[in-house]
Design a protein that fits this description.
147 residues; alpha/beta; 2 domains; three-stranded antiparallel β-sheet; 2 helices; 13% helix
């Protein structure tokens, strides 16, 4: 039986384990760092001198100090140290500095595609919608019920 969860590597409490609260608290700290992910910035290459509990950053290429060597990772300030978290494929984060939604894909953080207001006003399935035909569907067959 594994000692950690498959996706976030959260520690499982083991049978007959002493000090179960330590394992539980470790899992809570990790969840606090990655759930509803919103980072202060992905542009800072050096750790701030006075971080506040819960501060999170995406580490850019060329990061220095305690962040050196962790390009693309997340840095989460916990109590008195930085926890470095390796993101997984498909993670999404809000960058407060850039006011942009980011996606971790193929080892890099990139801006998520955005839609214009006009694109949100119409929907085309296998064809293009326009301002006259806001819902447009092109299909080889239609759904029919047996008689």
């Amino acid at each position: 039986m594994s000692t950690v969860s498959p996706n976030l590597s959260l520690p499982y409490i083991q049978q007959n384990q002493a000090q179960k609260h330590v394992t539980h608290n470790e899992g809570m700290r990790l969840l606090d760092g990655v759930v509803q992910l919103s980072v202060l910035s992905r542009a800072h290459t050096a750790p701030p001198t006075n971080p506040v509990a819960g501060d999170r950053y995406i580490l850019p290429s060329g990061a220095t100090g305690a962040w050196a060597g962790f390009d693309g990772s997340l840095a989460h300030w916990e109590e008195n140290a930085w926890r470095i978290i390796q993101p997984k494929e498909g993670w999404v984060a809000w960058d407060q500095d850039e006011r942009a939604l980011l996606v971790f894909s193929q080892g890099h953080w990139t801006a998520a595609p955005t839609a214009t207001a006009e694109q949100l006003d119409k929907l085309g399935l296998n064809t293009s919608a326009d301002l006259t035909n806001r819902l447009a569907v092109s299909s080889d067959a239609t759904l029919s019920l047996p008689i």
